[in-house]
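ESCALATION

Customer reports they have been waiting on this structure for their group meeting. Please prioritize. Original submission:
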Amino acid sequence: LLNSNVVNDLILLETMMDNMTGRQKDACTLVRMLALRGLGNIASGSPDKVRKHGAKLLASMVNGMDDKDDPHNLVALEAMSSLSKLLDHLEERDIQSMLLHIAIRIRPFFDSEQPDLRRSSIVLFGNLTKFSEGNCEVFFEQILNGLVTLLLHLQDPKPEVVKACKFALRMCGPSMGCEGLCDMFLNHLREDRSLHYGEFMNNVCKHLMQSYPEMLNRLILTNLFYFKSNWADIRAAAPMFIGFLVLHVDEDSCQQVDLDQLISGE
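Update from on-call: job pushed to the front of the queue and completed.
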């Protein structure tokens, strides 16, 4: 019902929204999940109402992501999927205050064992970058925190997660302050284009080390975490990533690297 344009004719829409919001405290996980789905569907049925009630809808989605009684993350998954639908219709002022909290909250889901959680959290992260201008420096830090993960998950075993990573990286490119990197993401990470991963990563690392040589040790440490990934292709991609970083960094910046830690792979 809420997904249909007929809601524009319903004088009971606000009452239904209040009831859906109230169901977020329901003891049943499925009820809480479906309540969020209904609220998210307002983006299709009545986008003008999303603008009017943006702060309330956003609070519901954030509460869903923070649901403490959600062992399989069903509520969090629905909250992320619904928020991605709502974002195009929310006022920027409503999302700005919650931008950092949401970005930090969804970051652990990038490596979830559940592919739907990986895909939805990464797509949402890409969508959040549309609102990063006002918090450019703060959100840039979140992009750097997620960059290695997004690049490695281009080797994810699930095609839908790879597609999500391509989208998120294309969205992140303009905020990175490196024209060469932005162009690479836009040109090589199109959905309809196959990717030669090794060649792509070689060029990405060249741009990273030209623009952010001070990031070398941070990028290496994040990659070391993935040496023990459950996915073989990602385990293989991490040392290759490090190799290309070291290959393209200048001699002075190499002093950042803890060789003992790198050799031990820990």
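Sent to customer with the following note: The chain has two domains: 1-90, 117-265.
Escalation resolved.
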